[in-house]
Amino acid sequence: GIQVEQSPPDLILQEGANSTLRCNFSDSVNNLQWFHQNPWGQLINLFYIPSGTKQNGRLSATTVATERYSLLYISSSQTTDSGVYFCAPRVEGSNYKLTFGKGTLLTVNP
Amino acid sequence: DAGVIQSPRHEVTEMGQEVTLRCKPISGHNSLFWYRQTMMRGLELLIYFNNNVPIDDSGMPEDRFSAKMPNASFSTLKIQPSEPRDSAVYFCASSLTGSNEKLFFGSGTQLSVL
What we know:
With about 110 residues, chain A is mainly beta. Chain A contains no helices and 10 strands. Chain A is globular, with a radius of gyration of 13 Å.
């Protein structure tokens, strides 16, 4: 199956700092989503981004499908950004199965 | 929109007991997924329904697990008999098949089997 690698595995920031999270995947994809799991366990969909760039407030994401990676940018981080960020691509040929990476654990300190 | 609704939020049971987890997907969504999250294995897809029909149950660990979707607004995941190794967070998620297939998760059920 498709291999999904997220980096870094852990990241500690001071409030106000910027960060970039990376997701590499091994196969061609037709769908890719980013999720945030907050400290209470809720999984929130951040982006549906099979290709191109999208922005939502302080967050933006870019997927370069031809090079098999996606990036999530967090600017001016806040303590509420803490949690685990998951990348979940879907391999071409599948019409439903997302494969979740192991995630990046982000801690934003005040 | 109420989002995906799961119940119960927490379930503590003893080994051997039957456990039933419930899910109400977002109205209008035609795809429903059950996931399990553990520290060791991360997020795993257990079963996928499309238009109430089970399409892929290859992730169901064993015969002790079963899932049903009797109508478009309700699904259950049953474990019988439960074992301590089933302890995990079980998530239900739904999406609308089509051009923008964002997946939306419920709040999960934290299951502890003693």
